[in-house]
Design a protein that fits this description.
Layout (H helix, E strand, L loop, with lengths): L1 E5 L4 H12 L4 E5 L15 E3 L5 H11 L1 E6 L6 H6 L1 H21 L4 E7 L22 H19 L4 E7 L1 E3 L17 H9 L6 E4 L11 E2 L1 E3 H16 L5 E5 L5 E2 H12 L5 E4 L8 E2 L4 H5 L10 H21 L9
Parallel strand pairs: 1-2, 1-4, 2-3, 4-5, 5-6, 6-11, 7-10, 8-13, 9-14
Antiparallel strand pairs: 9-12
Helix pairs in contact: 1-7, 2-4, 4-5, 6-8, 6-10, 8-10
Bound molecules: nicotinamide-adenine-dinucleotide.
Amino acid sequence: MTVLVTGGAGYIGSHMTLALKDAGRSVVVLDDLSCGFPWLVPDDVPLVRGDVGDQSLVRDIIRKHEVTAILHFAGSIVVPDSVRDPLFYYRNNTVQSRGLIETAIAEGIRNFIFSSTAAVYGEPERTPITEDMPHQPISPYGTSKLMTEWMLRDAAVAHPDFNYVALRYFNVAGADPQLRSGQSFPRATHLIKIASQAATGERSHIEVYGTDYPTSDGTCIRDYIHVSDLAQAHLCALNYLEAGGQSTAANCGYGYGYSVLEIIDAVKRVSGVDFPVKVAPRRAGDPAILVAGNERVRNLFGFVPKRDDLDQIVGDALAWERRLQVLRTEQDAKTLVPA
Ligand SMILES: NC(=O)c1ccc[n+]([C@@H]2O[C@H](COP(=O)([O-])OP(=O)(O)OC[C@H]3O[C@@H](n4cnc5c(N)ncnc54)[C@H](O)[C@@H]3O)[C@@H](O)[C@H]2O)c1
């Protein structure tokens, strides 16, 4: 009954590994370490370095560890990079996922959870966004994820024993409250991470992209979910599948949002640091408001958020940034940069 966590040395996958261990589950991690860190994987969890598209490697892991479920986090996640190099994103996110899904089905895996994204909706006509709204991604990143959802959908029809849940995350933030993991990638682009880096002095300032959106203060509104709550949503989805639930897709967010300026105010308030903020032009493809309709994840899987509190999310993110500063002085700095 082992769970294979792909991308388990990354930000969300490492929190998932902790949540599974905390729930008493057996875990094995597969990660190519392109953006991940071995030290984010608990010492007693086997870490296999390799690519999710390496079908003989994945087959060996499934057999050796008696894997019965796969949670697939591995992938490339930077939207502007996907615009610059779409074919890399289609290979790493779509083609390699195809190989993983094929191996999973060949090895008799029945339960599969996929990290999808709100980017599959593109620029929605209204919010909150529900799962049945049009899927019109505006970046190769979003398309690479939607194509994987389509492969899962079609494969599940052709192979009735294979069931999946695609979880479409909105903005993931925060860190493990026990500080066992957190967002550690130096070039991460998440707003709360960047603002926390400004508060801890890792950055000189932060930029706000556009102050003329049709929102209360003119800046974009996003739905921020605590990474530990997101891991709990996966546990609920896994329980659902293991109890015989049907394949589906579900949004992961709290159902309400905060503007960029509200987030910056929260980081300043919680940290007590008044860092510089510069206004920059809008970025292409940034919708004004992205908020999750979350009835499905709550009602179908029984997910109940426990950390939907902005000050806690920000406090945990700030605590992790400070922890990284200590780690930088304690450890060989090279271990804090991906291989
Ligand atoms: N962070 C967010 O806000 C967010 C939002 C929506 C969706 N997602 C999705 O969640 C998943 C995890 O995101 P994250 O923020 O933890 O990113 P991350 O970069 O921290 O983690 C991804 C991990 O996957 C590994 N990896 C990449 N390609 C691989 C491959 N081909 N084979 C094996 N390992 C590979 C990396 O080394 C890394 O450890 C991604 O699939 C991402 O698209 C993230």
